[in-house]
Amino acid sequence: MWGLTGGIATGKSTVSHWLSLAGLKIIDADVIARQVVAPGTPGLQQICATFGENFRRADGSLDRKKLGQLVFSRPEELRRLEAITTPLIQAEIQRQLALYRTQNATGIVIDAPTFYEVGYLVDLVDHVMVVATSAAIQRQRLMARNGLSEAAAQARMDQQWPIAKKVALADVVIDNAGTIAQTRQQVVEWLDTTNLGSSAAVLAEELD
Ligand SMILES: CC(C)(COP(=O)(O)OP(=O)(O)OC[C@H]1O[C@@H](n2cnc3c(N)ncnc32)[C@H](O)[C@@H]1O)[C@@H](O)C(=O)NCCC(=O)NCCS
Ligand SMILES: Nc1ncnc2c1ncn2[C@@H]1O[C@H](COP(=O)(O)OP(=O)(O)OP(=O)(O)O)[C@@H](O)[C@H]1O
Fold first, then answer.
1. Domain containing 76 — which CATH number?
2. Which first-to-last residue range defines the signal peptide (predicted)?
3. ipTM, 2 decimals?
4. 31 alpha carbon to ligand 1 midpoint, in Å?
5. Domain range for residue 55?
6. Is the pLDDT of residue 76 over 90?
7. Which atom number of ligand 2 is nearest to the Cα of residue 30?
8. pLDDT tens digits for 114-143?
């Protein structure tokens, strides 16, 4: 079993998409983090009880933008949010893992941005892949993708371990500082050495 991580906006989702195309089974912590706070869930109820009803939008969904603006600029608020979300995310990851085990599945990947930071995930996997860029490229891509100022992007990066610390612990590092095609080539080469999935579908996909 593998862990897949990186820093915010270093290209984890880009790589995990290719691993999925190759046939690996992805347990995506970002997707789960959304499911556990979907409208009507106890998770959303707890968030609104803690942070206020003004974080619930008119359609009943969580105002993610507003909550992000609060927690990514105030670490103590992020800790309060994580106290609600982390146990819910952990339980769902364990549930999905148990299901895969009953199927004797192989090629399972746990994809989580805070893979190292949360602590409990490291013991579940045999190896970890880290998708990395320099901090400068990471900041630029985050600013462009989320429409953030340099200071706001840096504040989000500061809520995670520096990417260099994750690279130092990784079993495999995918360097995503270059072009998408260069990154895909590294993923293809890795797939071809592991037998966990087939690189054919990955290579067949048109790149933008
Ligand atoms: C604050 C929230 C509502 C902002 O939502 P938004 O839709 O704007 O961002 P999204 O969830 O897509 O996350 C974007 C990126 O932010 C970073 N991030 C998210 N949560 C955290 C966190 N607790 N610590 C550090 N970085 C984080 C990750 O790199 C993630 O990929 C949301 O990120 C959240 O609920 N976070 C707490 C849950 C959590 O810890 N998620 C991480 C998955 S293990
Ligand atoms: N090699 C690349 N060249 C240019 N842009 C890239 C490259 N790789 C990814 N991007 C872009 O950078 C942004 C971040 O990539 P991606 O969403 O895959 O990162 P992520 O690590 O999953 O982020 P998060 O932790 O926030 O979910 C996206 O807008 C993506 O299109």
1. 3.40.50.300
2. none
3. 0.96
4. 10
5. 33-106
6. yes
7. 27
8. 999 999 999 999 999 999 999 999 999 999
H/E/C letters for each residue in 163-207? HHHHHHHCCEEEECCCCHHHHHHHHHHHHHHHCCCCCHHHHHCCC
**1 C-alpha to center of ligand 2: Å?**
24
Asked whether residue 16 carries a pLDDT value surpassing 90, the answer given is: yes
**The total number of structural domains that make up the chain:** 2
pLDDT tens-place string over residues 183-194: 999 999 999 999
- 8 and 42: one domain? no
- Its sign, for the CA torsion 145, 147, 150, 154, is negative
62 and 99 both lie in a single domain: yes
The Å distance, Cα 107 to ligand 1 centre, comes to: 25
For residue 147 the two structure tokens come to: 């429409």
81 lines ligand 1 (CB under 6 A): yes
- Report pTM: 0.96
User: CA 24 to CA 4: how far, in whole Å?
Assistant: 12
Which residue, 42, 77, 106, sits at the end of a domain?
106
pLDDT beyond 90 at 67:
yes
